[in-house]
Amino acid sequence: MDARHERIKAVFDVLNTNSNGYLESIDLETAARRIIRDLGVDPGSAPARTYLDSITGYWTSLVSELDQNNDGRLSFDEFARPHTPANYPSAVRPLAESLAQLCDLDQDGFIEHTDFVTAALGIGFPRAAAETFYAELDTSREGRIPTGAFLTMFENFLLAETRTAGQTLVPN
Ligand SMILES: [Ca+2]
Ligand SMILES: [Ca+2]
Ligand SMILES: [Ca+2]
Predict the structure, then answer these.
(1) For residues 94 and 10, what is the distance between their CA atoms, to the nearest angstrom?
(2) Count of H helices and E strands in the chain?
(3) What digits encode the pLDDT tens for the residues 113-150?
(4) What band does 66 get if pLDDT is binned at 50, 70 and 90?
(5) Å from CA of 14 to ligand 1 middle
(6) In this structure, is residue 145 part of a structural domain?
(7) How many other CB atoms sit within 10 Å of the CB of residue 100?
(8) Where does the EF-hand domain lie (predicted)?
């Protein structure tokens, strides 16, 4: 497995909270609701609703293109395929943008350290890996990263062929 697929597998494994070998809509929704709760965002607020809608859109897009046996769930091989440069703008970028908006609680254009780590923990990553990931991104050591850098990270994480920020999320 190359570095990119290792990262995608790490995401797949933490999102597959019931460890049944398949990603299902409930896995993504559970993680999304955990992130919203842990960030202390009102679930009825606009950023929370936009984020949940983007999760639904992301899932619908994945399943409609990839669920070849129509069982409503995705194996890792099915899940990994749409994360390509051609599919990213329509299938994945809206999710990245809504997550950035959600995590920028005070809407100042930056994602603060604590909010980034909270979101990473909500997805299901271990704290140590989340902290290392954050330190890789906060190159100016300000304790916050611009949302634009967050979006670049998200794209690189899923698309870069080589090792990139966030490789520490891959378990040894
Ligand atoms: Ca599952
Ligand atoms: Ca399937
Ligand atoms: Ca902020």
Answers:
(1) 21
(2) 9, 2
(3) 999 999 999 999 999 999 999 999 999 999 999 999 99
(4) confident
(5) 10
(6) yes
(7) 23
(8) 54-89
Query: How many domains is the chain partitioned into structurally?
Result: 1
Is the entire prediction scored with pTM above 0.85? yes
Question: How close is the Cα of 69 to the center of ligand 1, in Å?
Answer: 16
CA of 152 to the centre of ligand 2 (A): 30
Contact 30, 38 (CB under 8 A): no
Ligand 2 centroid from CA 109, angstroms = 38
Query: CA nearest 149: which of 161, 162, 163, 133?
Result: 133
Interatomic CA distance for residues 169 and 6, integer angstroms: 9
- Flag whether 135 is in a domain: yes
CATH number, domain with residue 95: 1.10.238.10
- Residue 172 maps to a domain: no
Q: Tell me the ligand closest to 23's alpha carbon.
A: 1
Q: Are 158 and 88 within 8 A, CB to CB?
A: yes
